Automatic annotation (TrEMBL):
It comes from the Archaea. InterPro entries: GGGP/HepGP_synthase_I, GGGP/HepGP_synthase_sf, GGGP_HepGP_synthase. Its EC number is 2.5.1.41. GO terms for molecular function: heptaprenylglyceryl phosphate synthase activity; magnesium ion binding; phosphoglycerol geranylgeranyltransferase activity. This is Geranylgeranylglyceryl phosphate synthase.
Length: 254
């Protein structure tokens, strides 16, 4: 699926470890669904959440955002439109480099399981098939430059984040995302609390091609508008979707 980033202003973050609203019709009008979380997530609950959303809304792109390569399987890759992988600038080394190399190492070692290859991985085929398999997965991979700014969040705890970035550093991370790493998404993550427009304003001035996502504590149309007016391309709404689906509807721009 080709995603038109210019069309994405509202993103719903579905945590597969939490229960989903019984009526998924509340998702009407959201532009993208990210399936992922930091606690209690498994391959099977990820797959179930992806399929529940795609069963109801086949036209909304659904990305799996795995926290660990163990959440990714051939089934999840096939069911999702893309696999988005966070690279956390202000986290520990594992969350910028380690887990990415681990994922690609696993792809090379067990492509059958991950991608359904039917070619036996023996002898000379290892090298050639390995390249094809990685290319196949790479087609579905979307890198996300992340800064995790709420130090009390589970996201910060599991990514080894113990220092929030200053607005100047957020701006630097945004510029690095667009000009150096070339990821399509730069994500200001305040998971669980509302961080306000400051970091978004700092990042927005450097981003042209890269989509600027802000997530954290969005539970009203006022907050969603404030973030979009500060220069974010999209707001990401998580907790409110699970906890209060009716209020969640108000976060979707008309
Ligand atoms: C979490 O950025 C998302 O990854 C959304 O945050 O759950 O606070 O809405 P909330």
């Amino acid at each position: 699926m080709n995603v038109d980033w210019d069309e994405i202003t509202h993103v719903t973050k579905v945590d597969p470890a939490k229960s989903l609203p019984s009526d998924l019709g509340v998702l009407e009008g959201t532009d993208l669904v990210l399936v992922g979380g930091s606690d209690g997530v498994t391959e099977s609950n990820s797959l179930e959440a992806i399929e529940r959303v795609t069963d109801v809304f086949s036209e909304i792109p659904v990305f799996q955002e795995p926290y660990s390569s163990s959440h990714v399987s051939r089934e999840t890759i096939e069911a999702a439109d893309a696999v988005s992988i966070p690279a956390v600038y202000n986290g520990d080394r594992d969350h910028f480099v380690g887990k990415h190399v681990e994922l690609f190492t696993e792809v090379g070692q067990k492509p059958d399981e991950l991608l359904g290859s039917s070619v036996p991985l023996v002898g000379d085929l290892i090298a050639s098939k390995g390249v094809e398999v990685v290319a196949e997965l790479a087609d579905k991979l979307v890198g996300e430059g992340y800064v995790v700014q709420h130090l009390e969040s589970t996201a910060a705890a599991v990514s080894g984040v113990d220092t929030a970035y200053s607005p100047d550093e957020v701006a630097g991370a945004a510029l690095a995302t667009e000009a150096f790493y070339d990821f399509p998404i730069f994500y200001v993550e305040y998971s669980g609390t509302y961080g306000g427009p400051g970091d978004v304003e700092a990042a927005a001035r450097y981003l042209e091609e890269t989509a600027l996502f802000y997530g954290g504590g969005i539970d009203s149309s006022k907050k969603a508008s404030e973030i979009l007016e500060a220069g974010a391309d999209a707001v990401v709404v998580g907790d409110c979707f699970h906890d209060d689906p009716e209020t969640f509807r108000e976060t979707i721009p008309e």
